[in-house]
Amino acid sequence: MPSSEILSIKDLSELLHLSTGTINNRLSAQRKAIESGKDANLYQVQRLAPPSIKLGRVRLFKRETVEQWLARFEGVKM
After folding, report:
1. How many DSSP H helices and E strands does the chain contain?
2. What are the backbone dihedrals phi and psi of residue 39, each rounded to the nearest 5 degrees, phi first?
3. Bridge partners, 65 (sequence order)
4. Residue 12 in contact with residue 50, Cβ under 8 Å?
């Protein structure tokens, strides 16, 4: 797969072996933490979900960024 591949929440859930509900819950928790005033660069906030963009109702992830996120948090209990 090319590294510039764009992933949907469904694609990400298959890659991470998590349900789409779990992915959505993590994204929601991340968003709420940021909205409550926590720094988006905090380790605890960043580890919830990989960086993504939202276009309308669709959340998209760049595969290369997801792989970097996985490498950064490898071995960390989520």
Report:
1. 4, 3
2. -65, 130
3. none
4. yes
Q: How far apart are CA 66 and CA 52, in angstroms?
A: 9
pLDDT tens digits, one per residue of 40-70: 899 889 999 999 999 999 999 999 999 999 9
Interatomic CA distance for residues 47 and 26, integer angstroms: 9
Three-state DSSP at 2 gives coil
Q: How far apart are CA 39 and CA 17, in angstroms?
A: 28
Residue carrying the six token digits 């349900």:
19
Q: In this structure, what DSSP letter does residue 57 have? A: T
| Burial degree of 30 (CB within 10 A; 0-12, 13-18, 19+) | buried
For residues 11, 15, 17, 23, the Cα torsion angle rounded to the nearest 10 degrees is: -50
> What DSSP designation does 11 have?
H
